[in-house]
Amino acid sequence: MEKVGIVGGGLMGSGIAEVVARAGLDTVIVEATYEAAQMAEARIQESLDRGVTRGKLDDVTASGVIARITVTTDLGALADRDLVVEAASEREDIKLDLFTKIGALLEKEDAVLASNTSSIPIVKLGAVSGRADRVMGVHFFNPAPVMQLVELIPSLTTSRETYQAMASFVSDQLGKQPIEATDRAGFVVNSLLVPYLLSAIRMYEAGYAAAADIDKGMVLGCGHPMGPLALCDLIGLDTVRAIGVSMYDEFKEPLYSPPPLLDRMVEAGLLGKKSRQGFYAY
């Protein structure tokens, strides 16, 4: 893989783009609007500046990363890519539309089209792409430049060659640790994590304890690096809810169903860090 495209420059998309550019690869980010493109560039620059300040990067390396990234609103800029990673909003209709369009414009027969989805079935995305054997899930974790894990999710129609190419890309080119998951909503990590997060929201909703005390209990009592409600804010409450809905739709397990409080917070635009207000103010 030498040329990589990222669709969506939000928290995950910009982080994935930074990881790819740090690996020395030609990177294109496609955003929906000019304003969103500017925000994506600013996120990456801010992340690199933090790395320089903390001594993780030098100025020359950071400048090289920026030089390898192009941000545009033109979906056609993805045509010559070896790999395209979709990191758009966690909405099935948006992703299906993107996979239809991108699958049609990719010029290289062996180009891989991947999704960073947390929960949407990969087989559905492959079916609309016109290249189902070259489609799979490649799920990074936030913040992508720091977190070492990447879930690799082949669908029923993904070829083994595609899977092996992506496993090599993640481990050898990006220097991260891949694990293989089946194409089931939630994959490995979110199937364990999301019920825990939703249980913490239910506990807070029922008045068992204050948000800070729930989080402190899990950090100091169980050794977690971050409490569940603070983690919800970091992930984005809309994303947590979307994953829960997708998992409940597939399995009909009550523990996957988003609590009413989470529904109301998302409806009110209280999405966590991205909106500066969730279970905590930012």
Give the topology, please.
Layout: E1 3-7, H1 11-22, E2 26-30, H2 34-53, H3 59-67, E3 69-72, E4 83-86, H4 92-105, E5 112-115, H5 122-129, E6 135-140, E7 149-154, H6 160-173, E8 177-180, H7 189-205, H8 211-222, H9 228-235, H10 237-251, H11 260-267
Parallel strand pairs: 1-2, 1-4, 2-3, 4-5, 5-6, 7-8
Antiparallel strand pairs: 6-7
How would you describe this structure to a colleague?
With 282 residues, the chain is α/β, with parallel strands linked by helices. The protein is 49% helix and 13% strand. It has eleven helices and eight strands. It has helices at 11-22, 34-53, 59-67, 92-105, 122-129, 160-173, 189-205, 211-222, 228-235, 237-251, 260-267; strands at residues 3-7, 26-30, 69-72, 83-86, 112-115, 135-140, 149-154, 177-180. Strands 3-2-1-4-5-6-7-8 form an eight-stranded mixed sheet, sandwiched between helices. Helix 4 (92-105) links the parallel strand 4 and strand 5 (112-115). Helix 1 packs across helix 2. The longest helix is centred in the N-terminal third of the chain and has 20 residues, at 34-53. The chain is globular and about 55 Å long.
